[in-house]
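Q: What would this complex look like in 3D?
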Amino acid sequence: MATMQDVARRAGVSLSTVSYALSGTRSVSAATRDRVAAAMAELGYTPNAMARGLASRRSRVLALVYPAAERGLGGTVAEFVSAAADTARENGHHLVLWPFRTNQADEVRDLVLQGMADGVLVMEVTLDDPRVATLRDAGVPFTMIGRTRDVGGLPSVDVDFERTTREAVDHLVGLGHRRIAFLNHSEATATEGYAPTFRAEEGFAAAMRSHGLEPLTRRVDESPQAGREALADVLADQPGTTALVTMNEIATFGVLAELQHRGVGVPEQMSVLAIVTSPGVADMSNPPLTTMHAPGAELGRLAVLNLLSQVSGEGSPAAGALIGCTLEPGQSVGPARDAAPASGAAQSPPRP
Amino acid sequence: MATMQDVARRAGVSLSTVSYALSGTRSVSAATRDRVAAAMAELGYTPNAMARGLASRRSRVLALVYPAAERGLGGTVAEFVSAAADTARENGHHLVLWPFRTNQADEVRDLVLQGMADGVLVMEVTLDDPRVATLRDAGVPFTMIGRTRDVGGLPSVDVDFERTTREAVDHLVGLGHRRIAFLNHSEATATEGYAPTFRAEEGFAAAMRSHGLEPLTRRVDESPQAGREALADVLADQPGTTALVTMNEIATFGVLAELQHRGVGVPEQMSVLAIVTSPGVADMSNPPLTTMHAPGAELGRLAVLNLLSQVSGEGSPAAGALIGCTLEPGQSVGPARDAAPASGAAQSPPRP
DNA sequence: TTGAAAGCGCTACCAA
DNA sequence: TTGGTAGCGCTTTCAA
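A: Here is my prediction, written as structure tokens for the whole assembly.
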């Protein structure tokens, strides 16, 4: 392997000039720069990341910690990772996914303390996430994707669940729907402190009440079968239901299958609005789903920029950013079935 | 940050003794070892990974390259990653996931040439994978998960598709099934050279023919809707079909929904055997699926051991390992519907 | 069983 | 605009 010293000799310049030509840290004449570049090409020079890291005390690696082994990695996370990796690269960094389990807080901290990474993006943050406390106490630069119960000014980016559920409800109410049910993530996610389950549920309830409507929520296991059962459950509890908001992709498949099985037309007799979805799910069903697409890419970009601003010590990172989902029209949402014929749909009183 | 020199002073020994005490590379008296350990604890010493990497010319990082941004990361890959990470850790290494796209072969190579990683695990290998050629030519240690068209003695681990499909067919034939259809991955995966699509298809055909049966295969898009359509298609083409082998999880959901919709009992009238599945899918349906579980964990372990043997230069790594799937009984496979009533199930002649 | 010291290949400061 | 050089914190050989 050719070293920087080899390049310097070949180009007839000093080692430091090669270093500066490579990093652009100080100006180098065009002529010199060309000769250095030529020497590098001729020798097939490849910089040594360890040496650079040791000398500069920066690895130029950002660690994304995500419990991939526990959760898999869906479309939304994939969009996040993709955008985060691109943003990191544009800023001269590598974005690397470190498959640590949620209970490996110390290992995550040590990554940075040992200099393998300059900072951490923490995904799947729970309401009381042990990793966050550990990183904060160790003074390790990090940005949360999601929020703990008590955000306390810590840097974070997250889906704006309040806004997303409100827009979902507003959209449906605007179409004349009054009896709307929310099919949430599972009870298991709630038990383990998965924040979106709570934030979306609260947001949905608040939005419904702001319209004078009663929220009906069900927590549903992540399986098609559970989706079918949840639909049956909802229709038994609230027979007049004309619209569903779902935040559970796999269960939504079951819901659609069960609706078809029962001969309930979508969207003629039942509207289905899938929120916080990943790309591609809309087209996995017939009719294509109307969705509110999670802002994975935007979150990834913001999270990396936030972390870089901490790592570079430049500027004060925004404490927290909340991004809403984007409504993407499909064919699974339409006017309420009794809204068109009746004179005043929005006036129809709730049943006792 | 305390350095090794600080620890040495505090323990009253030389720097090199601290290094040896830490690495165990040469014997250190118990007394000395204890004093070094105490000094480390008192100072809160954390070793510097960059310095160690520079001096030893080894990063102790294994890079797993996987196009997470393009594919997401399902249960099988999650099991693989988990086992690979554990095996790496047991051997003093980190396993990190580097989100490179399939066309970023040079970037993957540079990872190792720059010393950020010691070797590469290449996932989602296609029949003609550009990354494999690049890594081979650069002399970078790597192990494929999957196989190119021409394996040529390159280190690899893979699912044994030939064996898995044969066992699947044997199992069904043993239950009296004669008309068996295979629902494969999509045409799109075939177009991009995704090897499992071909290997499974060929294996299924060979297994069927070895029983004197005619293979019927359909390539199905990865969506529930496509699964429903594929079932309709198969039943139209081959009305007497009594069993399905599927290698397409999402489509399988649609198949089950459509079967229920048509009132076709599972497994009384139709057996469904899902092969190369990830954990959890079996329980996502009712009745629970009978599956052949992909050996993700075993592949992860073997892949890391193979790569480590290359990196350490010790022993010759096994060129290739093929692991079959494990049959996991569920309730979606049963005797052929016309086998039970008839006198000799296995003897029932194929219809003309 | 231990110590001394020569690097590993860079960055970045101090001079010129 | 360029050169010289002192580290960065460790591993590992050579000696004792």
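A: To summarize the key features: Residues 13-17, 20, 26-29, 32, 51, 53-57 of chain A lie near DNA strand D (CB under 10 Å from a C1'). Residues 75-90 of chain A form the longest helix (16 residues).
Q: Very helpful, thank you.
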